[in-house]
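Let's inspect one such protein example.
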Amino acid sequence: MVEQLAHVDQFIQSVMGKYDVYFFIFMFTNLIDIVTGVLSAVITKSFRSSNMAQGIMKKVSTYFILALVLVLVEGFGLPTPLFISTIILYIVTECTSILENLGNFGVTHPAIIERIINIINTNAETIPENTEKEGDDTTNGK
């Protein structure tokens, strides 16, 4: 059992050496997002344990997704840019969330940043949940 754990530890260290900068930036932005999220909730008096639990689950699922992509890249030989682009996507998502949290407690952003955040939020809110109408069967040519 100890030998197996040593192999896992050795694998993690060898992989982290390739991506350590990306992991550090991701974990740093992740931590800042958590801190600003909690501060934002306290300042706006919207702190709820259910929101916090949902946020924690999102963070945990993000780490699982990154681990899965890392296994696909390192274990199955998929291209390295797949992992790098995935972690950069999550870094950008964390930065957007940090900016939103800061805006919730009064920190002003440059106008261009505010427009980008509004576009992202508006597009996310207007995505229809179900585009098919009940009883509408246009896929089979009727």
